[in-house]
Automatic annotation (TrEMBL):
Peptidase A1 domain boundaries: 147-482
Keyword annotations from UniProtKB, A to Z: Aspartyl protease, DNA-binding, Hydrolase, Protease, Signal
Name of the featured protein: Protein ASPARTIC PROTEASE IN GUARD CELL 2-like
Active site: D165, D366
Gene name in the database record: LOC111493608
UniProt xrefs under InterPro entries: Aspartic_peptidase_A1, PEPTIDASE_A1, Peptidase_aspartic_dom_sf, TAXi_C, TAXi_N
Lineage, uppermost ranks: Eukaryota, Viridiplantae, Streptophyta, Embryophyta, Tracheophyta
Length: 486
């Protein structure tokens, strides 16, 4: 449509005003894609979903894998945050933050100590890959854990809460008779009531996979210790595990008769690590070493999901390479190239995040660690980039392990820069805002949920993973993100 040139002075004036208004509207800057608007509430920080949703920004389409390659065997469970369990009472809530950070610090120290010990053994030529690969050593520093599933143990199945741990290679439950047992939410499992329970002999191949084992009355015994002094000891057995309507027979589990620790009501642990004795490793061909999870957000009433099988591999997910560390086969390493703030990559050398020839450094995705850790120099560069773009926000003093905090009391909405992970394969993962700024008290203090690592090891924690669908395809060596959000 074409407009005629206005003939009268009034029409000309109106026309000029219209053009000026249009030009001003076109010139007005829109919301930059490298910032997020957030609503601030007294006890939590939330993304304003009317403006922008948690996003996955990827630059490479060639990594996408379709579901046609996978069969449809799938087991699906609800995934609960520990604060949702019935045994967690309201009076404990005010202490939840300090307890979580304490657990987290112990977990990180344990991972670092474990991998440093491995590196030292390699360097003095005393290390053997086979010995470490078959050892049943958990990444759990303290059996309390963060996320739980409900499964049936035995025949008939007895429902039990189990901690999930992507850094552990064992499945175990407390068992009667209990020489020493901690308090759990459900009755302790009694093998005498299960028709499918079968002890494992000392000479069996399954028993041979254990590192810390001995033999008693012809039965294979196990022992797993954790970084805080918690432990479980008992006999190894084959038992049926029920998930929904699906029964999985002859799963090797530890039947713990002597247990100690702060296990927060869970009956035991469901190891999801990459080793042969983990639940994933034992399922083997039944699921092809594939599983997917969505960690439930802390501040919602919803539940997350945990799915096993190739049918759980989502169409449209973007995949990055899974890196195997033969000296720590339980853990899932990924290739991180760098981090970004406000759409700009922070100048950190890529080799900072690379796995060394001795099995140290590298980047681990871990469900048991809460706060993402970066090597100190990398963390400081990232933190400084973030604070440079948030100098308009009132600062607060450091809290616990966090040195970058803000006083958002009284704020309704704020604007913060995006935080992104740049992967070696090319994709870029942009985090939801509540995955990097978290409330640490009820007074409006929010902190950047990253911390320096005590070593060269980087860990992508569960706070940063929350709300994002994450898939592990161990058989083909990929980790997928999206396309769904929890």
């Amino acid at each position: 449509m074409f407009l005629k040139h206005p003939s009268s002075p009034l029409l000309l004036l109106l026309h000029l005003l219209f053009l000026a208004a249009a030009a001003a509207a076109l010139a007005r800057p829109s919301l930059p894609p490298n910032f997020l608007y957030l609503n601030v509430k007294p006890t939590k920080l939330e993304l304003n979903h009317t403006q922008i949703l948690p996003t996955l920004n990827f630059s490479d389409a060639h990594l996408q894998v379709t579901a046609q390659k996978f069969h449809n065997t799938t087991l699906k469970l609800n995934l609960l945050h520990r604060d949702k369990l019935p045994h967690v009472h309201a009076h404990r809530h005010r202490h939840a933050f300090n307890e979580r950070i304490k657990r987290d610090a112990i977990r990180v120290a344990t991972l670092v100590r474990r991998l440093s010990h491995t590196a030292a053994a390699v360097q003095d030529n005393s290390y053997k890959v086979a010995n470490f690969a078959t050892g049943v050593v958990s990444g759990m520093e303290e059996g309390s854990g963060e996320f739980f599933v409900r499964v049936g143990v035995g025949s008939p199945p007895r429902s039990q809460y189990m901690v999930i741990d992507s850094g552990s290679d064992i499945v175990w439950v407390q068992c009667q008779p209990c020489t020493q047992c901690y308090q759990q939410s459900d009755p302790v499992f009694n093998p005498a009531d299960s028709s499918s329970f079968a002890g494992v002999s000392c000479g069996s191949a399954v028993c041979g996979r254990l590192d810390n084992t001995d033999c008693h009355a012809g039965r294979c015994r196990y022992e797993v210790s954790y970084g805080d002094g918690s432990y479980t000891k008992g006999t190894l057995a084959l038992e049926t595990i029920t998930m929904g309507q699906v029964m999985i027979r002859d799963v090797a589990i530890g039947c713990g008769h002597t247990n100690q620790g702060m296990f927060i009501g869970a009956a035991g642990l469901l190891g999801l690590g990459g080793g042969s004795m983990s639940f994933i490793g034992q399922l083997g061909g039944q699921t092809g070493g594939a599983f997917s999870y969505c960690l439930v957000s802390r501040d919602t009433g919803s539940t997350g999901t945990l799915e096993f099988g190739r049918g759980a591999m989502p169409v449209g997910a973007t995949w990055i390479s899974l890196i195997r560390n033969p000296r720590a086969p339980s853990f899932y390493y990924i290739g991180l190239a760098g981090v970004g703030v406000g759409g700009v990559r922070v100048p950190i050398p890529e080799e900072t995040f690379q796995l060394s020839e001795y099995g140290t450094n590298g980047v681990v995705m871990d469900t048991g660690t809460a706060v993402t850790r970066l090597p100190t120099a990398a963390y400081e560069a990232f933190r400084d980039a973030f604070t440079a773009q948030t100098n308009n926000l009132p600062r607060a003093g450091g809290v616990s392990i966090f040195d970058t905090c803000f006083d958002l009391n009284g704020f309704e909405s704020i604007r913060v820069p995006t935080v992104s992970f740049y992967f070696s394969d090319g994709p870029v993962l942009t985090l939801p805002a509540k995955n990097f700024l978290i409330p640490v008290n009820g007074a409006g203090t929010f902190c950047l949920a990253f911390a320096p690592s005590p070593s060269g090891l980087s860990i992508i924690g569960n706070i940063q993973q929350e709300g994002i669908q994450i898939s592990i395809d161990g058989a083909n060596g990929f980790v997928g993100f999206g396309p769904n959000v929890c």
